[in-house]
Amino acid sequence: MKHYGLIGYPLGHSFSKAYFTTKFQLEQIEADYELFSIATKRELENFLNHSKLHAFNVTLPWKEEVAAALKELDSVAASIQAVNCVIKRNQKWYGYNTDVIGFEASLLQFTDLHRKKALVFGQGGSSKAVQFVLNKHQVPFLVIGRTSSLNTLLYQDLTKDIVQEYALWINTTPVGMFPLVEDCLPLPFEYVTHKTEVVDLIYNPEKTRLLTLAERQGARICNGYAMLVKQAEASYEKFCLADEV
Fold it and tell me: Which residues are catalytic?
């Protein structure tokens, strides 16, 4: 029996247990997949030092912290310093980022990136994966966050000109995720038009408050379900590389 899991906090929104349990059954693999709620850095350190899992996924808020704790990262994870998939080989943890794979595939399915400019909402690990993909496809973008920096604007800095020039919106934050479904980023929806395209990485609820308000203004919308499935498929392939404990 092999053992896999997901770490994060909170985990009530996760679909991973059902996905991987079904996958193992279909592939006739003797394995289980459990959820591990980790709320503090001390708990994370203890998990990494003592877990007997063969491999695990990582979700909010630990993608960057896990990357910093691991000595072995693949080139993509090392570049963005965020991981969402970790496997054990030769008694060592190896970190990967399959969010990049999932986001790139779902984004290209949703829109043509030619001559697009993007606004990326959020500054965490998922944002870094999104930025990696946009850089790969030479899409100019601005990062929007709650703290200002050299490369980040504040939400109140968004003007009509910026919104209409950077017409591809990508939300990488958990704002609006179940159960806080009425929450929404402070965005100037009055400037959204039928030329605006909005991607929200959240998949529960199916249509967030952000997507609902943008759609009312005529925007094309896309939630995070396709990305979720595609990154899970890529994680499963990584899991098959994990050693026996």
Answer: 63
